[in-house]
Amino acid sequence: MKTIQVTLSAIICLAQLSVSAQSNYVYGVMRTPGQGTNVAAGTIRLGKLDVSNGALTSVSPNSLTSVISATGAALDPNTQTYFFQTQTDFVSVNMLDGLPSAQSTMSNPIAPSYFDNYRFNTSDSTIYGLARRSTTIAPGQVNGELYLASINPATGVITQISPQSVGQLYAVQSCAINPHEMVYYYSSQGKIIGLDLYNGQVYSNQTITFPQGGLYFDNYTYNCADTSIYGIIRVTTTTPIEFYLGKINPQTGVVTRISQQPLPYNAYTMNGSSTIDPINGIYYFSAQLLQGAGSAVVGVSVTTGSVVSEHLVTPQGAAINSLYFDLLRHPSDCYEATPTRVNPNGGSAGLAGVNKSALKVAPNPFEQQFTVSSDELIQSLILRDAQGKVVLQQMVNSNKLNVETASLQSGVYFLEVQTVSGLELVKVVK
């Protein structure tokens, strides 16, 4: 299995608006290639595309690096951070100013490993991906290993979740996370495989089938609005490629066409260059225009499969391959998702070891305050931010409490409520 390294320019810029107000923007990597084999001459910036008018702008004031790994990208809408990796480092980029907020050398304490096909899971604020290792077992014999893993972007440390290898190979046809069921999906040798985010074990394993015709299901991503996985059905492998928007049932492997006609483009960019606007029901991907006319970000309706927008990436009058926009991510996708499947390890949905009672938190999301109430006597309350830092702590001794939050920044928080019957954990959003 080879790591695909591409000269890229990655930057993402988010205005300080509500997530719903940001639905007009798609973020990704803006890259300009170097001349010939001189990749160091290229640039990599975070960028954003206004899909309402096609304006593509750079967020980063300067190039972040010259080479990145194009096997993944992640966006945290709560902290407004976009993540990518170089050949050795994991980089966090502030979406407001396009500057790196952290850059750490990736390391796996268990063994040397690559970290690929990663996405941010909004329901537990964790970046999940595939850690792959190659071990020489004899001269000329190499054993491939594959594990579900997570990464700490502040330290670059990779944590292995799967107790044993779940396979040897994976396809760079993207991946998807179902934040409700807490399952990570990837493709391998014609199958779509789901891994349990709680324990890293195989959750589902189905052969991909195409009742209406097809060879591959690429660039797929999960849509929180209708809990479906959408992607591109590739029917041919030579240019111009025949392909359609489709969706897959990961429990059966059956792929269904949504587009009635082939999408009118030469080809498309793989490696996770797809995202969904759940508010407007639009699937975005990067495509090559016909007759060598450059590249564009294309929006396709998830209802009809028809093209609803096409925004040219290459500037007017510039060389066709002078600018690329890849690794697309939408800030609204699954922004307020919460786990619904019970954790097989702890018995709770998303947070292990939580006692279930009639605890209520409202409103959620909140603005200036929220109210915590319970049938049980509340003894204490702790509020932590997404990084685990305590931002509020209070002794209570009542069944109801109003919590003032005017001083808190927008984002995801985790509320720990100690009642007489035990500890309860609730994810809250400002």
Q: Any overview of this molecule?
A:
By secondary structure, this protein is an all-beta fold. It contains no helices and 31 strands. It has strands at about 5, 25-30, 45-50, 55-60, 70-75, 80-85, 90-95, 100-105, 115-120, 125-140, 140-150, 160, 175-180, 185-190, 190-195, 200-205, 215-225, 230-235, 245-250, 255, 265-270, 275, 280-290, 295-300, 305-310, 325-330, 360, 370-385, 390-405, 410-420, 420-430. The strands form 7 sheets. A 5-stranded antiparallel beta sheet has the order 1-5-6-7-8, with no helix packed on it. A hairpin with a 2-residue loop joins strand 10 (about 125-140) and strand 11. The model is unreliable at about 1-20 and about 350-355 (pLDDT under 50).
List keywords for this structure.
430 residues, mainly beta, Methylamine Dehydrogenase, Chain H, Immunoglobulin-like, five-stranded antiparallel beta sheet, globular
